[in-house]
Fold:
Amino acid sequence: MQDRIDNPGRTRWRRFAAMMVPAAAAVGTILFGMQSGAIAADITVSGQTFKIRADRLEGDGFRQYGGIAKEKDGTSHPVALSEIDSAELYKLCQSVRADLPGLPVVLTINAGDDEPATAKNLMIAMDTLEGNASFTNIRIGRDASDLNPTAQAGSFGQSSEKVTIHGLRQVSRYTTAATFNLTGLRLKVNVGDEAEGKECF
Structure:
C-alpha cells in the first residue's frame, strides 16, 4: 500500500535519504561542498542540524558575521556565519541524527586522523560553537558588508588573519566549500543499538 503524504514514517525516510545523498557524494573529495565558497542567496536548509567536532582547527583568513538560514517553507533560523579562506581540521567528526519510527539512526563521518582534512573557501552556518580559540590580528566590530557584500550593511562583524580552535564543537545548519579534502575518510550508518553514543558529542 502506498504511503500517504502525511505519514510521519515517510517524512523521516525522506529526511534520511536527503541526508545520505550528499554524504555519499563526499566520498573522495568533497563533504557537503559546492562549486563556490561564497554564500549563495538560493541556499535552503533542511531544518535539521548536524554536529561537527575536531581536536583542532587551524585557519587563515577568518571572517564572522550574522545571517539567516531559511527552509523551503519560509522558516528562518538566525545563524552565525564563519568564513575561512583555508582550513586544516585534525581528527574531524561529523554526525547527523536521522531516526526512523522506533529505530535510532546516526550517520557518522570521520577523517583527518593521521593527516588533517583540508578545506578552501569554507563557510559554516552555525547555531553554537564551543572550544578554546586564539586569533591573530583580530578586528572586532567591523561592518559585516565589508567582510561579505551579501551581508547586511551596518550589522556586526569581526575578522582575523589566523584562527586556532582547540576542542572545537559546533552545531551547524549548513557548510559549503570550494574544496573539502577528507584524508582517511570513514562513513558509517549506525542503526539501532549501534547508534547509541555515536554522535560526535
